[in-house]
Amino acid sequence: MAYKISDDCIACGACAEECPVDAISEKDGKYVIDADTCIDCGSCASVCPVDAPAAE
Ligand code: SF4
Ligand code: SF4
């Protein structure tokens, strides 16, 4: 299990600052989560203005 960022992402960067394990990075104008690093804490989802990160 890991969180995944949907196409709704507006690349604000808030989630990347919040992630405790630095699993989120910017790629081609969108933010992506490294599933192997994500610890499923949910912090990214709680700060995202458009609810783009969701648990898979
Ligand atoms: Fe990072 Fe937590 Fe979001 Fe996973 S769920 S990407 S660990 S903030
Ligand atoms: Fe994209 Fe939401 Fe992360 Fe902002 S907080 S970069 S909109 S996923």
Describe this structure in words.
The protein has helices at residues 14-18, 43-47, and strands spanning 3-5, 24-27, 30-33, 53-55. It has 56 residues and is α+β, with helices and mostly antiparallel strands. The chain has a single domain (3-55), classed as Alpha-Beta Plaits (2-Layer Sandwich), CATH 3.30.70.20. The strands form 2 sheets. The chain has a two-stranded antiparallel sheet with strand order 1-4. Strand 2 and strand 3 (30-33) form a beta hairpin. It is globular. The structure holds iron/sulfur cluster (2 copies). The site of one iron/sulfur cluster (SF4) has 15 residues, from helix 1.
What fraction strand?
25-35%
Low-confidence stretches: none
User: What is the arithmetic mean of pLDDT?
Assistant: 96
Number of helices: 2
Q: Which CATH architecture?
A: 2-Layer Sandwich
Helix and strand string, N-terminal first? Answer: EHEEHE
**Ligand kinds:** iron/sulfur cluster
The major β-sheet equals: 2 strands, antiparallel
Computed over alpha carbons, the radius of gyration is: 10 Å
Q: Give the CA-CA distance, first to last residue.
A: 6 Å
